[in-house]
Amino acid sequence: MVPKRKNSLGGGGAIPASAIVLGGGEGRRMGGNKLFLAVDGLLLLHCVLDRICPWFREVLLAVGPKDASSLSLLLEGRSWASPVRVVVDRAPGKGPLAGLVAGLREMDSPWAFLMGCDMPWIQEPLVRRMWALREREEGVLCWEREGYLEPLHAFYSRSCLPFAEEALARKDHKLKSFYPQVPVQVVPEEAFADLPGHRRSFEGINTPLQLERFRESR
């Protein structure tokens, strides 16, 4: 059953939430951290920021300690439609869950949208539709694609923080490890059926071939 829509696309302007962009991965298939991938002389991350900053109140870049200084230097002298901050992952090497925890600790909003730094095809209408369908004031808001919950294209409320921290402490590093402890609202894929190309929103760049595909599409 498709949830009743409050608004087709959730309105315009900034969504009253932060975005947490994960950038702590090793990028083995790409030969290095995807934070520093460049497309025609421009960081892939800059392309992502140009795209998403108008949608959110702020953007937090969750990175490991060894990348924080280099990334801060690369961001100097640039401005975006919303504030962009670097937050340091206190548990590097523990995967996306550690980045989520770092962002939830530092964000200035009650909600955050979690995504990777390698997702330049993210679709604004889909993100706004998700937010418009939100029915709870806390927990997780995610969409289901072919029976799979997408934790890296989802909204998380600040109330998730203690449960995510507990999962991290017990070394259960999967993003969905704490889902049983919080309210989870699942939006079925048919809620986006009228949005052309909505599946592209979750696509990331994991190989040189995909990077070339993105370069050609710009």
UniProtKB/TrEMBL annotation:
Q: Where does GTP bind?
A: 22-24, 34, 89, 118
> Where does it localize?
Cytoplasm
Superkingdom of origin:
Bacteria
Taking every annotated instance into account, which residue ranges of this chain make up the domain MobA-like NTP transferase?
19-179
Q: Primary place of residence?
A: cytoplasm
Q: Does the keyword Ligase apply?
A: no
The residues the record assigns to binding Mg(2+) are: 118
Q: What is this protein called?
A: Probable molybdenum cofactor guanylyltransferase
State the gene name recorded for this protein: mobA
